[in-house]
Design a protein that fits this description.
Two copies of one chain form a homodimer. In chain A, strand 7 and strand 8 form a beta hairpin. The first copy, chain A, is about 25% helix and about 20% strand. Chain A contains six helices and twelve strands.
């Protein structure tokens, strides 16, 4: 394997991966090499551009820590996350649709009883959220585990605030015997994804804004059902048609209804797909 | 732009980059999105595999520092580096061929006078290296700047030794008025690329070894000529046909001739391409 050139190197690299023991890994490596080389060949990547790519990935890695995930932001803004979600969540009609997970979920968030306030001091207009979790035939799903997370009124998640080391606007709850849940929180607002890093530079260089429409994240897990990762989006938001991460689905748009006292009410029900 | 699915999301993402002011960046982003999505679609990437990919890139970023460049190792081992070199260094017959830059070059290495020993205490059999730099018509290239770097007898570059904070087996020299250079060093040996990180895990999982055949790196810069980045490989090395980074070119293989006293002599001339 000497004297490889631009016409034969791709086959040589694929051959190198041909004895991969795991068949699925072999399939992935083969396709990855084909598309990676296809990209470089299609644009006739220069050495200077290759260096810029290495530098971009390096900076993306270095800004990523346990509270910031720039590679997920990159995947989100290139539409890879939503493509992956779409390919893997082709649910029967009637089920709640899935959307992107995003970079701000935290495992092992604090548990709350139904009716409690998960905001824990977060800024924002008071908001009451309620709904029901059912299966596709209408059967109630009791004891479903709901992970809920959202930004505050500044458009920031707790993990983005340098001075905050405890959970705000995030928590874990369980549906009651009738599949119902309700909790208090703050009003979700539109916010820009973190754009002071490599992904922000990419968005600026490509003439794109970094905004997401206001939304509330849910991950719903229940025995016998597929896990649902989704958001509820706020109707009327100016960014619903230009979400920087391509995540909006019309079926997930709902009205946060303003109440006489200035608080808001969101009512949204979820329908889970049975596990296969 | 709502309700994107696996069939229409790629065009939607490409449209998002359609107002990129820089035409070349627009071309690159468009092709990148097509191939990135094409890869995910071809293998029907699962959400768990996507998570593993995010984790792999994150670990690759975190192990990268000013002395270790895991993204370059990844590019090298996927053949992307050599493909990029091949596409951009299509020189006229008679010119010295280029190969990969690798991750171990250090800018601003110490300067040496011709004849000096660049090893600076590095372990290894003594080696004398000499040669001439000319243009394609045979004209001598006086005052060319040669960056030279190589591993020691343990197969390690200075920057890989935790206890060494000074340059070993690396230096900058200039050709004399006749285009000649000569310096002392140590015998180059085969070595494995760093394989205690994500790239090493990838190689192990795909049943590949991490070895490179013995070689000596050169970067040669001279006014009026294209910069040449290349290696000289040691003839007889067992890894010449399975270089983990796909870098070997037969024209770059040379004999390190053992002398009666146990030292070695490498004689190799370089021919530069005129700058366009």
């Amino acid at each position: 394997m000497r004297n490889l050139n631009q016409d034969n190197i791709t086959q040589a690299v694929i051959a190198r991966f041909s004895s991969t023991p795991d068949a699925r890994l072999k399939e992935i490596m083969t396709s990855l090499v084909q598309h990676l080389h296809g990209f470089a060949r299609d644009v006739k990547l220069t050495e200077g551009e290759w260096e810029k790519g290495i530098d971009f990935l390096t900076r993306t890695g270095h800004i990523t820590n346990d509270k910031r995930q720039e590679f997920i932001l990159l995947s989100d803004t290139l539409g890879l996350s939503m493509l992956t979600v779409a390919m893997n969540n082709d649910k029967p009609a009637g089920c709640t649709e899935a959307t992107v997970f995003g970079p701000f979920h935290v495992e092992n968030a604090p548990h709350f009883e139904l009716g409690e306030d998960i905001s824990n001091g977060a800024k924002g207009a008071p908001c009451f959220v309620r709904g029901k979790v059912t299966g596709i035939g209408g059967e109630v799903v009791a004891g479903a585990t709901l992970d809920v997370w959202q930004s505050d009124d500044d458009g920031m998640y707790d993990v983005q605030h340098p001075g905050i080391d405890h959970a705000q606007n995030r928590g874990v709850l369980h549906t009651d015997a009738d599949g119902n849940f309700h909790f208090r929180s703050t009003l979700a607002v539109a916010y820009p994804i973190p754009h002071d890093g490599p992904v922000g530079q990419m968005l600026m260089a490509t003439n794109n804004h970094p905004w997401r429409p206001a939304h509330l994240h849910f991950r719903i897990q229940a025995k016998g059902y597929e896990t649902l990762v989704t958001h509820v989006f706020r109707d009327g938001d100016q960014y619903l048609d230009s979400d920087v991460v391509f995540g909006v689905r019309q079926s997930l748009v709902a009205d946060w209804v303003e109440q006489a006292d200035g608080s808001y009410l969101l009512a949204y029900d979820f329908v889970l797909n049975p596990a296969t």
